[in-house]
What we know:
Elements: E1 6-12, E2 16-22, H1 26-38, E3 42-53, H2 59-67, E4 97-104, E5 110-113, E6 118-119, E7 132-136, E8 141-151, E9 162-169, E10 175-182, H3 188-212
Antiparallel strand pairs: 1-2, 2-10, 3-8, 4-6, 4-8, 5-7, 9-10
Helix pairs in contact: 1-3
Amino acid sequence: MVQAPSLDVVSKTNDRIVLRFNNVPRQYVNAIRRISISEVPTLAIDDVVMMENSSVMHDEAIAHRLGLIPLRTDLNRFVLPQDCDCNNSLGCSKCRVLLILDSEANDKTKLVTSGELVSEDDVVKPVSSDIPIIILAPSQKLKFEAYARLGLGSIHAKWQPTTCSIVTDGTEQNQSILTVETTGALTAEETIDAAIQRLNSKVKTFTDTVASLQVP
């Protein structure tokens, strides 16, 4: 007798979820794992306009650090730049978010952190205010505009929503355990939901393509 597939939530927090799949093909579970890493979009800084930088660090190095700061992402409000209808290289409110920073060290050294980034969007902000960006010596200044856009982990690691995504065997036959931990840009549940939607879209596209084939 073939047992019906089922899914149980073993544990769940904002940043971590553990799912138990029963009688679900391992390939399907692994597809969700892979998509959650590389094909679920998140926002990340990928363009920086440096206005003033008198620190010891090059502009490019600072921009690289900024890109790796996880930003809280709302997938219902933003689209990938290539899917936006604004047709503007600078983007619009649907495909980019502006963040600015203006910091200066006065009479002593100053640690500049992600908490000093000011976003034009009330939701899109660093997931933590304590991420170090640079240390400024007295009289040094850092001022820039940064633009965050949606992207995919398959393009660059800064857009990966997960820090951990693994599949292990369960305690019973035909049982798989999927564990996903996120950077905080998306919750673990949001990441899984988006991955499943993406997988279902792929399956539908494949099915439609096969159905449209004409046998000679």
